[in-house]
Amino acid sequence: MQLEQIIQFNEYPLSDTAFQQRCKQHLDEHGALVLPDFISAEALTKICQEGAHKKHLAYYSKDDHNVYLKDPDPDFADDHPRNQPVQSSKGCITDNQIAEDSPLRTLYDAETFRDFLATVLGEQGLYNYADPMSSINLHYADEGQELGWHFDNSSFAITLLIQSPEAGGSFEYVENLRDADRGEMNYDGVAEVLAGKRQVKTLQAGPGTLAMFRGRNALHRVTPVKGDKTRMLVVLAYNSEPGIALSESARLTFYGRL
Predict the structure, then answer these.
(1) How confident is the model at residue 145 (pLDDT cuts 50, 70, 90)?
(2) Which of 9, 55, 89, 95 could form an SS bridge with 136, CB 3.0 to 4.6 Å?
(3) Shortest CA distance to 120 belongs to which of 44, 12, 7?
(4) Which domains does the chain have, with CATH numbers?
């Protein structure tokens, strides 16, 4: 498929400077940008079919972790927000399992798309991962699977929702809950979220929605999926510098192989 058959350019004029600036301003102010029906119904169908066809290739992981995605700190109790465990479980197929003629690869590699993302994110440029697995990931979540509360290590995330579950699988977040650059971890605020005592926001997204999210200082999760329909979400991962690969330990954790 050509890029013009994938992106809904009538709704989203990616090369238009005014449109780019509106998107950037919204992301800067809210920490999240949601573009519904970003891809065409035809492209969505093809990606969904590829995902269903290759689901048997997915590596499934189930991890206990804290919200900071760091090793436990012995200076704090096990039930302290710094160490309190949450659970994440999902399946994943990797970049080298995505077909060469997939609309996902056309979209990911397109200069028009990449320039738009870089402008909105305030980056000088965006580059593929140097390893063969990390650039495009398609995630599967079946009934009971979830992503526990966490902060991202990276400054931004770009996702494309392919298939919604029957119920659950909602993306919830609390923006600006910490300041990682200043080392302010806000344990009290995290404790309130983990105890269900703090109001959270829900990012509303249907299939075909492109979302940009700044998760470094925003605590976020995906609630457990309910029902027989698998939640499928694509993560389009870029780096702000060329030649960067995901570490071998991270690849073993996320993908089960190198």
Answers:
(1) very high
(2) 95
(3) 12
(4) 3-255 (2.60.120.620)
